[in-house]
Write a structure and sequence with these properties.
about 0% helix, mainly beta, 4-stranded antiparallel beta sheet, 7-stranded mixed beta sheet
Length: about 120
């Protein structure tokens, strides 16, 4: 089992920045990759970014490319999401997720709220 705990959410003005953190514990060596998803009220949960644990390959949703950066610190078992040039439409609950293979995300955090005011 793997436990994921997010932190770093909050209220920020449009154009500002925030950094989210996701601390993993448990059998972290079993993880293939970790990702960030978000869900705004009334919307489905959507993919934001992911990073492969070995090698560091990253992928981003088109809506955040050039503005968000995902990174990892394997020694600390932590994944970060640096968010810049934030827009009101980035407002959502952001979830950290992890998976053991490139199929389905097995583990989820509790979520952290990000609110961007205009």
């Amino acid at each position: 089992q793997v436990q994921l705990v997010e932190s770093g959410g909050g209220l920020v003005q449009a154009g500002g920045s925030l950094r989210l953190s996701c601390a993993a514990s448990g059998r972290t060596s079993s993880l293939y990759d970790m990702g960030w998803f978000r869900q705004a009220p009334g919307n489905k949960r959507e993919f934001v970014a992911r990073i492969i644990r070995s090698g560091g390959i990253t992928n981003y949703a088109d809506s955040v490319k050039g503005r968000f950066t995902i990174s990892r610190d394997n020694a600390k078992n932590t994944v970060y999401l640096q968010m810049s040039s934030l827009k009101p439409e980035d407002t959502a609950v952001y979830y950290c997720a992890g998976r053991r293979s490139a199929v389905t995300y097995d583990y989820w955090g509790q979520g952290t709220q990000v609110t961007v005011s205009s």
